[in-house]
């Protein structure tokens, strides 16, 4: 989709929250997204000549995230991505990491270059502010030993923890761990990896073969219907429903990976300067 059309689409939907579209808005939407016809025509694709500008995805400072391990002389991580799939290896945006020194960033572009189009609407990040909060989480059940899993399935041990455990989980205590304690959903720097689309897959550094660590989780949503306990207290009040395609409280960046998955970035603990890897989960 042309980037200019997508921005107009989002702007119209945001302006029309709580009211019907005007006739002019309907005409514009019909031009940008005409009604589907069946059989659907095969899209006409042609190679794009020239370079494609990357889109800014996220920016992190070590002053906000002290645990962020950066190369010597840097205190800032900027993550950009190409808003197109890169088959056959990757069916999600390809990311690029820039480790920089905040003091050396002097010429800030007020209007950075943009690509002419994006492959999917969910590949255009909506500008929003990240408010880092340090939390405690635990490993995904699929990487725990059978002995630990049996302990998690013992309701008596959970009862000994007191009122912090919801009694509704008495019949399936291990679910309390899976939903409320392990692998926090949402945007996350570091922490434990999320699994589910596949079994755990060790990530090895392509340069030195060292086992890599999770760097960043890019989710399609901040939370889901089964893990609402992770919703920040200030966002638990009912909100006005949004129109399709518009950012919601659980999708402030309006990003979607695949059919609602996560994109995980891994870095080498031996050297953050080694190439990073990407994984969809």
UniProtKB/TrEMBL annotation:
It comes from the Bacteria. This is Uncharacterized protein.
């Amino acid at each position: 989709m042309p980037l200019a059309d997508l921005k107009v689409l989002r702007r119209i939907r945001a302006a029309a929250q709580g009211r019907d579209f005007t006739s002019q808005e309907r005409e514009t939407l019909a031009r940008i997204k005409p009604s589907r016809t069946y059989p659907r025509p095969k899209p006409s694709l042609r190679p794009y000549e020239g370079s494609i500008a990357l889109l800014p995805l996220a920016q992190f400072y070590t002053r906000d995230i002290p645990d962020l391990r950066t190369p010597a002389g840097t205190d800032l991580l900027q993550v950009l991505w190409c808003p197109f799939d890169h088959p056959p290896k990757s069916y999600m945006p390809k990311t690029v990491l820039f480790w920089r020194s905040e003091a050396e960033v002097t010429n800030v572009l007020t209007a950075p270059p943009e690509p002419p189009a994006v492959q999917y609407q969910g590949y255009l990040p909506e500008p929003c502010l990240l408010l880092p909060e340090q939390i405690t989480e635990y490993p995904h059940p699929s990487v725990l030993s059978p002995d630990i899993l049996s302990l998690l399935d013992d309701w008596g041990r959970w009862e000994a923890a007191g009122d912090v455990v919801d009694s509704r989980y008495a019949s399936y205590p291990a679910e309390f761990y899976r939903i409320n304690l392990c692998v926090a959903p949402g945007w996350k720097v570091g922490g434990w990896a999320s699994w589910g689309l596949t079994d755990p897959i060790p990530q090895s550094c392509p340069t030195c073969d060292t086992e890599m660590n999770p760097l960043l989780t890019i989710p399609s949503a901040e939370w889901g219907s089964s893990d609402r306990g992770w919703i920040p207290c200030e966002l638990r009040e009912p909100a006005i429903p949004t129109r399709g395609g518009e950012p919601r409280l659980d999708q402030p960046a309006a990003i979607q990976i695949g059919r609602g998955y996560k994109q995980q970035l891994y870095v080498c603990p031996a050297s953050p300067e080694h190439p990073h890897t990407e994984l969809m989960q």
